[in-house]
Design brief:
Elements lengths: L3 H17 L1 H19 L5 H5 L2 H24 L1 H7 L1 H7 L4 H19 L4 H19 L7 H21 L4 H24 L1 H6 L5 H5 L1 H24 L7 H20 L3 H21 L7 H5 L2
Amino acid sequence: MLNRKNKLLLLKVLSLFSVVRGYNILVIALAQYLASIYILAPELPVRSVVLDLNLFVIVLASALVIAGGYIINNFYDAEKDLINKPRKSMLDRLVSQRFKLTTYFVLNFIAVFAASYVSFKAVFFFSSYIFGIWIYSHKLKRIPFLGNFISATLAITPFFVVFVYYKNLQAVIFVHAVFLFLLILAREIVKDLENISGDLAQNYRTIPIIYGARTAKLLISFLIFLTLVPSLLLIFRFDVGHMNFYFVFCVLLLLLFIMMLFKAKARKDYVWLHNIIKLIIVMGVFSILLIDIDLVLNRIV
């Protein structure tokens, strides 16, 4: 049995894990590795990719910067989250704001220091990434659409750094990136609909607040229809192995999403829509394995 002190310590660890959204970071790190193996460097043996120390440092630095980004975002959104996510907010508040800021600076310092192992360009990249996340959290997220656009851009940045590392300029990679970017951008506007109560209380100028929920829904629908374009290209134009079944499923699910979107009225409806997009993204990470199901057997050595 845990005593009171150990229970409090465990709760604080869970609180910090909640603040940095450790589950999201694990999925992103896995996605970076799978994208490297199956999409960015398919000609290399699996072992050489997995054991590449430079790639490991890049993934580690990405994880640390993203964790720091969640912390600084949580710091600026503390009051808003108390309205939109009261239960999660109460758990997050078990860790003091001072400790969160200290952790934020430590994580970013370690990330930049680790990046110095790879190259000076990596140091510059991650320093810029850290600054981009801070300026977004501090200023840009309050600007309608621009804040959404910057947020989606920052979300795909960890994949961009791996793309640069392998210098793979194939069109199929660009189409994958467009699909993911449009999906995340649509999710950001859904989150604005979901969090409209807290945004109103904190004077955030989001698209639903300024232009209304209907305009926000029309914009989301437009982005989802745009998402169908790279989906269909990846099904019919590019060779993505059995991953084409994933994109077929995405097309059907996104059409259902649009129908549900215009029926949505309450916050719980937007939470469902948000979760549908999250499901598509997470499934997409694991469906990368379907690009070449014989890969582990043929390229493990």
